[in-house]
Amino acid sequence: MSNEPAAVEPAGDPAASNESVFTPPASQEELDKIINTAVARTHRKYADYDDLKNKVSGFDASLSQAKSEARTEAESELAEKLFNAEVRAAAIVAGFHDPTDAIAQFGDHSGVVSGLDVDKDKLSARLTEIATEKPYLVKAEQSKPKIKLKPSLGDSPKGQEYPAAKGARAAAALREFSSKR
Fold this sequence. Notes:
two-stranded antiparallel sheet
């Protein structure tokens, strides 16, 4: 047996069929030409790879920038809501008529809020300033009225006893009232 491949005879007339018959390259130059043609065809197929790679990296950069901006905006809105809630709660405790007045009068709150933390000492100091500058915003201190309770039926005022007849008359009046209904 020889090392040369056996020639394959196509069935029928090769000119009649649309299939091309493979002929192995006869020299190294022909093989190099076939390989270079295949490589060139692959390079043409992926010629825009670098452009696409640059576009994707540009999209990645713009996506990360958009995420960063959205996060900053969300944290800013959250910090504003947190500040308003803290001022509203502190204003209620401080006795403001309307806590939204305290928010409106507060002014710049950049020194009070840092990130998502609220400095409660600075907040209460500023609310105290607002209350002293505009006392009409705060409820006036009212002394609690003294409530005097009436004695119950079982209690007797200072040694006086309720007469038993008075209780009997009350019971009779109740029975009469309930029978008329």
